[in-house]
Amino acid sequence: MAHGASPATYPPLNTLKPIADNVWIVDGPTIRFGLPGLKFPFPTRMTVIRLLSGGLFVHSPTQLTPELRAEIEREGAVRFLVGPNRLHYWWITDWHAAFPDALVYLAPRIREQAERQNLRKMSFASLPLHHADGYPWDDEIATLPVVGSYMTEVEFFHLASRTLILTDLIENFEPGKISAGWLRYLTWIGGVKPPHGGLPRDLRLTFTWQHRAQLRAAVETMIAWAPERIVIAHGKWHESNGTAVLRRAFAWLLK
To answer: Which domains does the chain possess?
Structure first.
């Protein structure tokens, strides 16, 4: 993987952007991911929530610059660093080095993925992220593991702001931010185009009959939460009408 800024990103990059009380997003550079010779530029995005204690919950950390670190430190102490699925671990090592007192929670198979790619050595301790409760943030953030044959992705819902935080369960790539026509075609084939985006078809296939009922139950749980906004890691996020977005994005599953 290589990372860097590109037209696919959402400037300004590497800075806190408030989206609700005590909730920020940070848009980061792209990471190119895919098959050799067929790599797609994925813009990155993390979410930061300030808990009632004043500590910060950092979801899917993006590139840590000195300027961003200073902004983060002004808002509170980083208490939790969260890797929500096996593909979202790239910058956690840098954040742990900068904030060694933070607890690191990793979804299943992150360490295995990192070691196989031989890209980011994780020599620090971490805690498992695969249950629906039992976390220090339970009173403020609901946790929802979504289990597939390829990976478990863990979703979060900030109760006070009604903000749903997804990672790859919905991707939403705007054609205007994709320079090559064949890449735009891939977003159409993959089912990840606006207005709502969706679960990429390759990942959709990993939810076999054994997991499909669990995926449907998870989507129904998220709909019942009635989110106002949905933050996603890749592409245009949804600032409003979160419940309607979920129904449209998962119509193929709910029908």
So the answer is: 3-254 (3.60.15.10)
Q: Is the pTM of this model over 0.85?
A: yes
Kindly state the percentage of the chain with pLDDT values over 90.
Answer: 76
Predicted confidence (pLDDT) at residue 184 exceeds the cutoff of 70 = no
> Cα–Cα distance between 126 and 106 in angstroms, integer?
7
Q: How far apart are CA 207 and CA 215, in angstroms?
A: 8
Alpha carbon separation from 246 to 99, 153, 166, 199, 206 (Å, rounded): 34, 16, 11, 11, 19
C-beta of residue 156 within 8 angstroms of C-beta of residue 46: no
Tens digits of residue pLDDT in 171-181: 998 987 776 55
**What's the whole-number average pLDDT of the chain?**
91
Is the previous residue joined to 200 through a cis bond, with omega within 30 degrees of 0? no
Handedness of CA 192, 115, 72, 103 (dihedral sign): positive
51 and 140 Cβ atoms separated by less than 8 Å:
yes
Dihedrals phi, psi of 12, to nearest 5 degrees = -70, 145
